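# nightly structure sweep
# worker-07 picked up a monomer target from the shared queue
# config: single-sequence mode, recycle default, output format = structure tokens
# input follows
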Amino acid sequence: QVQLVESGGGLVQTGGSLRLSCAGSGSIFNFAVMGWYRQAPGKERELVAVIPIGGLINYADSVKGRFTISGDNAKNTVYLQMNNLKPEDTAVYYCHARSLGGRPYWGQGTQVTVSS
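# output follows
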């Protein structure tokens, strides 16, 4: 069974920073893609940033220049450094991974709240 465990969410003021972490575990050797999505109340889940193995990092336009994704494929771990946070970044952030066979996995989500 594969699990993604997130940590690092919380409450921060506008302009502050948070770092999210996600560790994958279970019966999988390596993921093909790891990344982060978020879902705000009343909105659809949206991509924040993803790292595909051997591919280019992809960021949502709304976070470019403020968020940085990094990862360790060998450890099935991905991080999201979020700087200059804005109230519109408030959402539940979900870790996402896809196996080499294309199967998707999701974490349980971690709440990020940015106060104005």
